Amino acid sequence: MVRCIMPTLALCALTMAAEAQVCQPYWSSLDGLQAVTQDLEVFDDGTGPALFVAGYVALPGQTPFYHDIVKWRPHRTEVLATSICGSAGWLRTVDLGAGPMLVASGDFCDYSIPSLTWYALWTGTTWTYLPPGLMIFAPPPYFIGLTFPALRMQTSAGAMQHGTLRFAQEKDALVIWNGETWKRVDPIGANRWMEHFCHWRRNGQDVLVVWGEFTSVAGVPANKLAIFNGATWEGFATRPALYTRCMKAFDDGTGEKLYIAGGGTNNGGSMIWRWDGSTWSDLGNPLPSYPGTITHVEAMEVFDDGRGPALFVAGVFNQAGGVPARNFARYDGTSWSAVGVGLGHGSSFGYKLKVFGDSLVIGGEFLNVGGGQSEGLARWVSCRACYPDCDENGRLDIGDFTCFLTRRAARDPYANCTVDATIDASDFVCFMNKYAAGCGR
């Protein structure tokens, strides 16, 4: 329960008259943090769960953007990349059986030690080398092989950490951590690579879905899309003709189904598809945001914003399933809806989505979001959060008014209380009403 400490008797009177409020999720910045985001990851390094952001990051008021790894919690931001230099391309939580670890991959500066050229491990206080075996060096003629951890999932054989082994000739192999090193589970094919992975609970069984540039896996025909059940491979007899950029499993209430999305054209075309185990269904044809832009869906994530679990998609489009939606949309299993006024104009091929607490965090190339400004990073916050607790200290007091006015002056999307197209006087009235209603937990 958020405790309400009223600064005036007038507000107390408002509280007595306030009615229960309808669930209304809202947009917010990450305390003014700005970034050209490379990756997002949620990890607990012993100090509690936090959001880790890799990319060109700028703290509030900071210019230019520096290539950092930042650890963020509401009103607490730490820059972590002070003991490494170079660029971080992605972040992964890796579990080799001894507990989760946060691994950063990129082009770092210590070229004398290969494991710090491409990878670094966060200890909770500093960056260091990887455990033995996590980095693979392939024998000739493949020269060096880089292992990219993908995801950890439950299989019939127990929990397994999956990844890909990429060779100099741009050939990939699926690998599984066997407790000491990575074990290859399929032979290397000519000129092929694996790009996207997805955990799907199909008919009660956990399987790994893989998309990439291949025509077969372990001798099984597979036209760019395949399933690994922990022991054997399956190919898809048919698949949508689109360049896949992301995959996600989502349960619409009738069991988990596989969703794939992508595209990459300015001529329209179906870009979101659902596979129920036997049939592909077209879920909508996004249209270009602006003339000449390359329409596509770049990221998908499942999130409950207080109205029930839904599939959120981000990309470059101005409608989803016939519903106007600016570059960001919500699908509840039967219908599409906009997410506020969405995201401003962008041409991003790098949107990232990550659930963190009561928020769905999005990183990408945008400036305007939700009627305000939050460059490259924003969050869609569930209505379960206490909106008028602006400073997120667990109580309502005069500090929340100061916080709201400060964020309104900065055109933070949080100040768009009405979740419409603009920040104006009606938003302060909205804030006052929500403050008066209080927040129940």
Describe this structure in words.
- The chain is mainly β and 441 residues long.
- Among the domains are: 71 residues, no CATH class; 101 residues, no CATH class.
- Helices cover 8% and strands 45% of the residues.
- It contains 3 helices and 36 strands.
- The strands form 10 sheets. Strands 21, 22, 23, 24, 25, 26, 29 and 30 form an 8-stranded antiparallel sheet that branches. Strands 2-35-32-31 form a 4-stranded antiparallel sheet, with no helix packed on it.
- A hairpin with a 4-residue loop joins β7 and β8.
- The N terminus is likely disordered.
Secondary-structure map:
Elements: E1 3-4, H1 9-17, E2 26-28, E3 34-44, E4 49-58, E5 66-73, E6 76-79, E7 86-95, E8 100-108, E9 119-122, E10 127-128, E11 145-155, E12 158-167, E13 172-177, E14 182-184, E15 193-202, E16 205-213, E17 216-217, E18 220-221, E19 225-228, E20 233-235, E21 244-251, E22 256-265, E23 272-275, E24 280-282, E25 295-304, E26 309-316, E27 319-320, E28 323-324, E29 328-331, E30 336-338, E31 352-356, E32 359-363, E33 368-369, E34 372-373, E35 377-381, E36 395-396, H2 398-409, H3 425-437
Which descriptors would you attach to this protein?
441 residues; mainly beta; eight-stranded antiparallel β-sheet; four-stranded antiparallel β-sheet; 3 helices; 8% helix; 45% strand; globular; disordered N terminus
* Biggest beta-sheet profile: 8 strands, antiparallel
Strand segment count: 36
Q: Please give the radius of gyration in angstroms.
A: 23 Å
The percentage of residues in β strands lies in 35-45%
Mean pLDDT: 80
Q: Unreliable segments (pLDDT under 50, ≥5 consecutive)?
A: 1-20, 111-115, 138-145
| N-to-C CA distance | 5 Å
Q: What structural category characterises the helix and strand content?
A: mainly beta
Helix content: under 10%
Number of helices: 3
- The coarse overall form would be globular
